[in-house]
Amino acid sequence: MTAVLVTVRPDNSMQILSTTEKIDTLYLRNRSRQRSHFSLATNYLHLKLNPRQLKVFLQFLFRSPESRYYGNVAFKSGPKTLDLAPGQQPAGLKKMKFEAVTIKDIAKALGLSTSTVSRALRDSYEISPETKKLVLEYAEKINYQPNPIALSLKEKRSRSIGVIVCEIANSFFSQSIDGIESIAYNNGYNVIISQTRESAERENINLQYLTSRSIDGLIVSVAADTTDFRNFRELHDRGMPMVFYDRIVNEIDTHKVVVDSFRGAYEATTHLINNGYRRIAAVANNDTLSISRDRLAGYNAALSDHGIPLRRELTKFCPHGGLDKQEVERAIGELFQVDNPPDAILALSDKLTTGCLRVMKRKGLKVPVDAALIGFSNSDLTELIEPSLSIIKQPAFEMGELAMTLLLELIESKRPVTDFHTRVLQPELILRDSTPERVLPKSLV
User: Fold this and answer.
1) What pLDDT, on the 0 to 100 scale, is given for residue 102?
2) Interatomic CA distance for residues 100 and 20, integer angstroms
3) What per-residue confidence (pLDDT) applies to 52?
């Protein structure tokens, strides 16, 4: 059994002797946030610690996930030898808890009242320049930060923005969040991000949490599973500044930022038709989403304008937008079991585009030999995979920037805003190897 011998002396010096194993490096911080470095990669060590450092060190030694050593300790003056070995239950130790520096700590250290420290930090004329200098220098030294909760109660604003999206890992949403954060940061706001994973239940939980944190406003792209928007409507009616983007709620009268989804789907479908494809399938997100309806409308219009009959069996819905891989597998499987299966697929969301390609490869279907593929996507990887994918790219960063700019207008307006706008940005059609020109039989030309 490996053992460690620790001797604590009256002057709070410590001698550590490990019989077989070396102990890891340890960093300790005292209340002044000054970092002390102890290299414990040795079989023998002698340390001189102040009482707080001693307590922190012993707690580290007994409770650290990296340590297997346990033992009993009593913080009393006088020499004490501790034999530490695996399996012993520690007694008298509490889990270390982070403690933020407060005005009380500054006041105690400087021998001032808390009200004097508070006024000095606020640059009050009641406090002498010498006292202000003393307080500010010490506050900077110990990295004092004002309590944001207390400030929000006093100023009746938190300078925090809540953002609700379906999935942060989605390239479209990560880029739009980047745009949101860039504007927020430049205007002194922090951003709290939550994801729904296409669940209405999680969306509601996130909404309740964010509003309980006294956020100043919300930017939302609704979940695919959401059909009841009463919670959003109630918050909006109570005065919560709110902007919807990408997946919007038409019945709530506020600012909205969207891309021209109809045009994106129409142009992609027209490109396929012009390249010789006639049996074009569409794989869509939940049909309750505004973007699904707009993109399917563009797909249907392009078929109609080119005299191609709409085949209902070639339209498939994935209620979770591709987060559930089985639903994409099922959709592709059903499409290629019908009579006259598709010769091209239009995927109507970022996750569905890559999901369709993944499933087709798994089933041995070659793109574009067995079927061409084009879809909405903002991923840079679509250019690198084989074959490179034709995509409809959305200006995600600009959408995020615009959504945040419109939200700031609502938050900082001196009067109630009643004139709302829906800003429509344009998609970009990027053509690559997955949708080459197809040679048609003369009978179909």
Assistant:
1) 83
2) 38
3) 60
Q: Which residue type, as a one-letter code, is found at position 28?
A: L
**Token pair recorded at residue 310:** 């709409």
Q: Find all residues with CB under 8 Å of 38, minimum gap 6, and list them.
A: 25, 26, 27, 28, 45, 47, 57
Are residues 30 and 55 in contact, defined by beta-carbon separation less than 8 angstroms? no
Low-confidence stretches of the chain (pLDDT beneath 50) = 1-5, 12, 17-45, 63-96, 445
d(CA 181, CA 94): 39
Q: Which residue has the tokens 């089985």?
A: 326
- The pTM of the full predicted model, rounded to 2 decimals, is 0.71
Quick one: tokens of 374?
């084009």
d(CA 107, CA 114): 5
Strands of the sheet containing 4-8, edge to edge, are 44-48, 13-18, 4-8, 80-84
**Across the beta sheet with 390-393, what order do the strands follow?**
315-317, 280-284, 344-347, 372-376, 390-393, 428-430
Distance CA(393)–CA(378), nearest Å, equals: 5
